[in-house]
Amino acid sequence: MKRLTTLALLAGMLSAPALHSEEPGSGSAAPLSFPQLNDAADSEPGDEPPAASPEEGASPAAPATAGDAAATAPAPVMPDLPPPVSGTAAPEVIPVAPVWGGDLNLAQMGMPDGIILSGGQRQGGVSFTLPADQVVIHSQLSLAVRVSPEMASRNATLQLMLNGQPLGTLPLGADGEDVSHYQLDIPPALMVSSNNLSVKINDGDTLQCQRDIHDTSRVTVLPTSHFSWESQQLNISDDLSHFPRPFFDSMQMTPADIAVAYGAKPSADVFSAAALISSWLGIQADYRGIAFSALRDRLPERHGIVIGHPGEQVGGMMLPETDKPLLRIIANPANPAYKLLLIVGKNDTALRMAAWRLTRGNFAPQTATLDVEPQTIPVGKAYDAPRWIPTDRPVKLSELLRKDQSPTVSGVWHEPLRIAFRAAPDLYLWDGETIPLQVGYRFPSESWINEDKSLLSVTLNGTFLNNLPMNKQGPLEKVWRYLGGDARQERFTIPLAPYLIYGDNQLSMYFNVVPKDDVPCSVLLNNNIKSRITDDSWIDLSKTRHFSLLPNLSYFVGASFPFSRLADYSQTTLLLPADPSETQVATLLNLAARSGNATGTALANNRVVLGMPTGGGDLQSLRERDVLAVTALDQQAFNQSLLADSPYRPVDNVLSVREPDLWQKVQRRLTGDWTSASLDADRYFSSSSAWRGFISYRSPWNSTRLVVVALASNDDQLARTEDRFWNRRALTPGSAAIPR
C-alpha cells in the first residue's frame, strides 16, 4: 500500500506544471532524447560501477580518480512518506506546496576533479542524495566532458545511467572541441532520495584492454557538470522528533541556509541561545556547509527558528506565555507549508536549557510542544574536542575511517583510500623531532602482478610522502627472494614533519598494482583481487606539546583557535555592539557554526555581551575570558572602546594601524617577530574603502587572553567575510587577515 501511495503521489507531481522551470541554455549544449522507464516496476537494473562517496576537501593522490569496476546497483528507493498530521485543526486556507529549485555539481558530490576515466579504467560513477521531504517534478543534467585527442580519434561513446536506468549515449569528441557540453532531460521519477550516476566508455574501434597506466586516452566529466531540478515539498507534521528536519536535512549535499528570527529589542541571552543552536547545526552540516541569516522583528519566509521571551512579539507573532523553557513546532503564519521552531525562555538560564535540550534530540514521536525540565549542561575541558585526533596515545587509522569507508580496495583500478582527520592547531615538537606514521599494508598474492613496479603511494594534504614497495629492498632481501623466501614488505614507518599537520587534514593512500606485460585482459578486469591497509596502521602524536605564539589568525581560520581550546566556549565571550545589525548577528552565528563544525562540540557555555560594559558581570567576563567580537566601522562608539588599547585605531570610518613605540619594537624582536608589516597594513586600510577581514591582538582586559575581531568597512562587506577564508588550509601567521 505504501508503494501504491508513493506512485500515486509521484503521478500527481508529474502532471503538475513546472512553476519555475528554466529554458535550456543556448550555446554548444546538445539536447538529447531519452528512453522511457521500464514498464515493470520491479525490473532488474543494469550494471553500474560503485560510486565514490562524498568527502570533505578530497584531493587527488593517484592515477585513478573515478569509480571502480561494475557492480549491480539497487533499484531506486522512494522516500518514506511522513506521517499524516493528526489532532490539528485544518487551516483556513489550504497551503500551496512550495516549489524549490536545486542545483548540485560533481564537486559538491565529493568529486573535486570530476570523474576521470583513463588507462584501463573505463567505468566510473558517483552517488548523491536529495532532501527526503521533496519530490522532484522536473530535472536536467548538464554535462561538460573533456576528451583527449587520442580518445576522440577512436570513435568512442559515453554511456550514462542513473539508478540502473539508461539515460543515453554521448559521442566523445565528435564536435572536435576540447570540452563538449550536453543537456539531458531526466525523467523526474528517476530522481529519488539516494541516487547513483554511472558512466562507461564504449570503445567501438579497439575494445582492447589498456595496460599502460600512462595511456593518454582520457575522458573527464568535469566537476562543473551538474544536476538541476525543481521539486515540491511534502508537508510534514508539527513534530520535534523530526529535528533537525525540516530546517536542515542530512540528505541535502549543498550548503544549508537557516533563518533565525528574534524580537525588536533582543537581549544577550537570545543571541547566546542562537549561538549554541548554530554551533550544533554546524556539526550536523559537516562538509556541506551552512549559512545563517538573522531577522530582527521579522518572520522567515520559509522554515526558520524563532528565539525570544514569553509574550514577546516577533514579526507580529506573539511567543507563548510560559514559566518553563519551551520548545514548539508550528506552521509558519506567512505560509503554513513551512515550519517555525519556537525556542522560548524567560532568562539566560531558561533559553540555554531549551537550546541544550533541543540539541540532545530523542523526542517522542508526534511531539509538537515540549516543556523543558531543568538540564545539567556539562563544562568542557581543554582540548576535549571529539573531532580532534587524540594526542595521548597512538591512534589507529581504522579509528579515523568514516562508517561508510573500508580499508580494503578492489581491482587494479580503484579510488584512493582517503582518511580525513582534524587536529589541534597548536601542536609543537622540538626541532628534529617527527610524528611517526606507521602504515601496515598488504598487496594481493597474484602471480601476474609485477612485484618490482607495484607501489603504495602515500600523500598527506597533497604533499607526497613516500612510495612503499611491494617487497623489501636491499641486496640480501633480493637474494632471499630469488631463493624462494618471503621478502614481502608489509609495514613501514614514515616520519612526518610537524608543519605537515594542519587543523584539517587528509591522508591519501593508493595501491598502484602494476600487471606483468603478458597478462590477459580478462585478468585485469577481474575485480576479485583485494588490497588493504591493515589494522596495525597508526599515527602517534603523543610526543607533541601544545604551544603557540599568539596572535596567529591561521589558527583561528583553520580551527577557531584559541577559542576552541575549550570547545564549549566556557572561556570565551562573544562581543557585539549594543544595537547589532542583522548582518553582524548573522556573522556571529556563522562563526559559531564554523567552530562547532571544527570541533564537534556545541557552544553550550558561551556568553554574549552587548555593547562595551563599564562594570558588573559583563566586564568581569571580558577580564576572565578570550573575546571574539563582530563589528563594522559604522559602529563608531563601540569600536573606539573596543580598539582603545589595541594596535588599531578607528578614525572617521577608517581603520589605521598605530605606529609601535620603541619598547613594543624591542618586544617584537625578542619574541622573534622580525616581519612586522604595520606600515603595509596601515596603507591598505587607509587606501581601501571596501574590505573585510579579521584582526587580533592581546586582550586589553587581561594580557594572558586574546581578542579576535571580525571587522569590515560596512555590513555589505561583513556579509562576505566567509567567502574566501574558509577554503584555505593554512594562512600566513599574523594579527590581520584581509582577503583581496
Describe what this molecule looks like in 3D.
- With 740 residues, this protein is an alpha+beta fold.
- The chain folds into four domains: 2-15 and 27-36 and 44-84 and 96-233, Galactose-binding domain-like (Jelly Rolls), CATH 2.60.120.260; 240-371, Chitobiase, domain 2; 394-543, Jelly Rolls (Sandwich), CATH 2.60.120.260; 553-737, no CATH class.
- Helices cover 18% and strands 30% of the residues.
- The protein has 15 helices and 41 strands.
- The strands form ten sheets. Strands 1, 4, 5, 7, 10, 12 and 13 form a seven-stranded mixed sheet that branches. Strands 15-14-16-20-19-21 form a six-stranded mixed sheet. Strands 22, 23, 26, 29, 31 and 32 form a six-stranded antiparallel sheet that branches.
- The longest helix is centred in the middle third of the chain and has 18 residues, at 268-285.
- The N and C termini lie far apart (58 Å).
- Mean pLDDT is 82; it is low at 1-93 and 726-730.
